């Protein structure tokens, strides 16, 4: 069994296929002993890559993008989350909400896990013809702190992860979800990457095996209504009401959160425009300059071959 260590920037429901692959032994079927840690602070994933204690990092593609040609070059080899897993909370009833409603208002945005929340929300505003400067932001505080303050009356809207948003709305009748951003188009929200200079033929082979198992995890989640594995969801997310975890999971299944391990070129290009608009990159980076789709593509070909072989034996 080959050790294959992952350093992740967080623990989130949008990583669910990976957790399923671990729990169901899909990685071990591919000869990989996958282990995971979540450093504090989250940017410790980069230290783990640098000192060789991690074989890959899991997080936002905005990090490899802004580091490229400045600090360190990283190569992305797989994707797990194909949509943004955030939601926008409002005071009172959010029915009939339009994005233009945020103009002139104050939006709270958690930032403890990195810059993705603000990057995406402001990109969404620009895509809809809204000047991000027309909105006031409070975004330099921890998500739990901001959640408590929002419920206490601070600000007009609060952007947080979808799971926390629905859990908060279920507990507190004075707030509601105005928008679930999983419906707002493809974007490579969460990807796997490592330092470009450390990639060898053996590394590429291990990445392919990882992708085969992750593809199986994605397929498993897509083929099973969340209600059928609610007990697993309860174990994975014990602090959230299981009904909320089931609801969010099925929403993600329906709205394209999980598609394949390949990074969508359309989603990638969209996100690069957003990163350039936020000045994290001077100009959008070309797909092939930062993404190597080889391991994911090879995994999909092999998985298809194995599926057809198994069908032929029936």
From TrEMBL:
Cofactor: Fe cation
GO biological process assignments: thiamine biosynthetic process; thiamine diphosphate biosynthetic process
Pathway in which the depicted protein is active: Cofactor biosynthesis; thiamine diphosphate biosynthesis
Stored Gene3D superfamilies: Periplasmic binding protein-like II (3.40.190.10)
Keywords associated with the record: Iron, Metal-binding, Pyridoxal phosphate, Thiamine biosynthesis, Transferase
SsuA/THI5-like domain location: 12-227
One of the record's GO molecular function terms: transferase activity
Catalytic reactions of this protein: N(6)-(pyridoxal phosphate)-L-lysyl-[4-amino-5-hydroxymethyl-2-methylpyrimidine phosphate synthase] + L-histidyl-[4-amino-5-hydroxymethyl-2-methylpyrimidine phosphate synthase] + 2 Fe(3+) + 4 H2O = L-lysyl-[4-amino-5-hydroxymethyl-2-methylpyrimidine phosphate synthase] + (2S)-2-amino-5-hydroxy-4-oxopentanoyl-[4-amino-5-hydroxymethyl-2-methylpyrimidine phosphate synthase] + 4-amino-2-methyl-5-(phosphooxymethyl)pyrimidine + 3-oxopropanoate + 2 Fe(2+) + 2 H(+)
Entries under SUPFAM superfamilies matching the protein: Periplasmic binding protein-like II
Function: Responsible for the formation of the pyrimidine heterocycle in the thiamine biosynthesis pathway. Catalyzes the formation of hydroxymethylpyrimidine phosphate (HMP-P) from histidine and pyridoxal phosphate (PLP). The protein uses PLP and the active site histidine to form HMP-P, generating an inactive enzyme. The enzyme can only undergo a single turnover, which suggests it is a suicide enzyme.
Family of the protein in this entry: Belongs to the NMT1/THI5 family.
Self-association and partners: Homodimer.
The protein, known as: 4-amino-5-hydroxymethyl-2-methylpyrimidine phosphate synthase
Organism: Lophiotrema nucula
Lineage per the UniProt record: Eukaryota, Fungi, Dikarya, Ascomycota, Pezizomycotina
């Amino acid at each position: 069994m080959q050790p294959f260590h992952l350093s992740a920037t967080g623990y989130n429901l949008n990583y669910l296929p990976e957790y399923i692959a671990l729990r169901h032994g899909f990685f071990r079927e591919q000869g990989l002993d996958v282990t995971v840690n979540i450093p504090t602070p989250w940017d410790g994933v980069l230290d783990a890559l640098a000192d060789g204690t991690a074989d890959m990092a899991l997080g936002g593609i905005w990090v490899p993008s802004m580091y490229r040609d400045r600090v360190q070059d990283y190569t992305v080899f797989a994707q797990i989350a194909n949509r943004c897993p955030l939601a926008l909370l409002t005071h009172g009833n959010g029915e009939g909400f339009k994005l233009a409603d945020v103009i002139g208002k104050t939006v709270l945005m958690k930032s403890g896990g990195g810059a993705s929340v603000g990057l995406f929300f402001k990109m969404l505003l620009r895509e809809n013809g809204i000047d991000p400067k027309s909105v006031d932001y409070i975004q330099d505080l921890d998500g739990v702190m901001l959640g408590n303050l929002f419920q206490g009356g601070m600000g007009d809207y609060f952007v947080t992860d979808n799971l926390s948003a629905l859990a908060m709305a279920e507990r507190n009748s004075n707030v509601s979800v105005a928008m679930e951003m999983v419906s707002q188009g493809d974007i490579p929200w969460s990807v796997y990457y490592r330092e470009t200079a450390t990639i060898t033929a053996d590394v590429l082979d291990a990445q392919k095996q990882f992708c085969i198992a992750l593809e199986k995890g994605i397929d498993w989640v897509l083929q099973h209504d969340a209600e059928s594995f609610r007990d697993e969801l309860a174990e994975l997310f014990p602090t959230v009401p299981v009904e909320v975890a089931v609801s969010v999971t099925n929403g993600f299944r329906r709205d394209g959160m999980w598609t394949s391990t390949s990074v969508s070129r359309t989603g990638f290009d969209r996100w690069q425009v957003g990163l350039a608009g936020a000045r994290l990159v001077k100009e959008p980076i070309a797909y092939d300059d930062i993404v190597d789709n080889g391991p994911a593509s090879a995994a999909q070909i092999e998985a298809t071959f194995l599926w057809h072989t198994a069908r032929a034996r029936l």
